[in-house]
Amino acid sequence: MERSDVVARDKRYVWHPYTAMDEYIARTDPLVVVDAEGPYLRDADGTRYLDANGSWWVSTLGHRHPRLVRALVEQAGRFPHASLAGVTHEPAALLAEELAALAPGAGRADVPEAARLSRVFYSDNGSTAVEVAIKMAAQYWAQNGRPQRTRFITLSGAFHGETIGATSVGGVEVFRDVFGPLLFDVVHVPSPAEPSGWERAFAQVESALREHPDEIAAVIVEPLIQGAAGMQMYAPAFLRAVREATRAVDTFLIADEVFTGLGRTGARFACDLADVVPDLLCLAKALSGGILPFGATLATERIFTGFGGGPERALYYGHSYCGNPLGSAVAREVLAVYRDEDVLGQVARKAPRVRAAFERMAETIPGVTRPRALGMVGAVDLGGGGYLARAGWRVYEAARRRGLYLRPLGDTVYVAPALNIPDAALEELLGGVEESLREVARGSS
Ligand SMILES: *Cc1c(COP(=O)(O)O)cnc(C)c1O
C-alpha cells in the first residue's frame, strides 16, 4: 500500500492518543513506520529515524531484538495464552521467581522476610500495575484493622497512568482536571523536583502522615524521575525520607517504576539508588522490551499474607491477559538479555556522555536551561522567552529533518533511548539534539 493511502485511512479512522485530532488531521505528516531495528525506525518513504525515546519508553533493548523475537515466536508456537484461573505455566512461574530475586531488598539479611517483595501479580500495562497496587493497599487496610485508611498521598506532577484510579493519584493537572468529579480524593504535596529542593515536599508528606495516620493507605511516587511531568528529577534523599516516614506510622510506600525500572536510571531499579525497599513496586514498559503490553506488581510477603484466611479476604481482581505466556516468556528473555549483554554496565559507561551533552547544550545555547540527567535520561527546558518559548514542536521538526524522532514533553526536550544503543548512534542522537536546538535558537527554522 502507498504511504499516502495509509495516512489517508489513518486520518479517516484512527483516534490518536494525546493528540488534538483536528490539528493532526489538518497539519501533521505522521511517520509511517514500516520497519524498526535497534535504535532506528524506518518510514515508508525510506527515511531512517533514530528513536530518541524508545517509542514511548518501552524499547529499552532496541526494536526487534532477535532474542526477544525468538522468545515470542517460540512461546506462540507452544501456547500463546492460558488464563491464571486455576491454571499456571512455566513462563509465569519462573518470571515471578526471577523478579522476586531481583527486586529491591532481595537476599538482604537486613530486610525481614515480611518486607521482601516476594509476590508477583500480573497485569497488562503500567496503568493496571498501578491500579492493582492501589487496590491491594486499600483492601489490605480494610481487612487488617485499619479500615479508615483509604487516602493516598501523591506528588504534584506525578503520572501513574490512565485508568480512573491511576488518574486519581496523578498530579498533572491537564490530564486530571476534566475528570475531576470522577476521581477519588487524595492528598497532594508539592513535587520534590522543584528547584528549591525536596525538603518542602517532604515536610508536607511528613505532616500529612503525622496528622492523619489513620487515613493514609499509602504514599505513591515515581522514584527519582517524574517522567511525564517533563523528566523532573529529585534527590534519593527524598525517597529515603519518605520511606522512613511511612515506616514510622506503619503505612505503605508504592514505587511506580513503570518508567524508571530495569536500568533506565543506571541501577536495576531507581529504588536501589536510594537504598529503599517499597511495599509495592509497579513494573511495565521495559519489562517486555517493546514487544507487547505486559505489567507486574510486586508485593511484600506481609501484604500477600494479609489476603489469606478465607475466600472473603481474597483479592478479587484480574485481567483476561494476567500472566499472559507470551508476555511472561518475553519478559524472562528481557531479564536474560540484561544479564548476558551487561545492560547495566552499558548504561554506566554511556550515562556520563548523556549528562555532558545536555550540560553543554544548556551552557552554549541561549534559552536552553535546567540541564539534568540520570542514567540514560537527559533533558533540558526551553525557556527565557525569545525564539525558544513554546518551541518544543519546532525542535521536533528540526530534529525530524535530521532523521531524529524526538518527541518533546511540552517545553522539555529529552532523550530516553534504548539502553543498549550503540556508541555511534548515541553520538548521532546527542549531536542531532544539539544541532536541532541550535537551529531553533537561531530562529532559522
Ligand atoms: C507510562 C507510565 C504509566 C502507565 O503505563 P501504561 O503502560 O502506559 O499504562 C504509569 N506510570 C508511569 C511512571 C509511567 O511512566
From TrEMBL:
The modification N6-(pyridoxal phosphate)lysine is found at residue 285. It catalyses: (8S)-8-amino-7-oxononanoate + S-adenosyl-L-methionine = S-adenosyl-4-methylsulfanyl-2-oxobutanoate + (7R,8S)-7,8-diammoniononanoate. This is Adenosylmethionine-8-amino-7-oxononanoate aminotransferase. PROSITE patterns: AA_TRANSFER_CLASS_3. Homodimer. One of its GO terms (molecular function) is adenosylmethionine-8-amino-7-oxononanoate transaminase activity. The keyword tRNA-binding does not apply. One of its GO terms (biological process) is biotin biosynthetic process. Keywords: Aminotransferase, Biotin biosynthesis, Cytoplasm, Pyridoxal phosphate, S-adenosyl-L-methionine, Transferase. Its EC number is 2.6.1.62. It is an enzyme of class 2 (transferase). Catalyzes the transfer of the alpha-amino group from S-adenosyl-L-methionine (SAM) to 7-keto-8-aminopelargonic acid (KAPA) to form 7,8-diaminopelargonic acid (DAPA). It is the only aminotransferase known to utilize SAM as an amino donor.
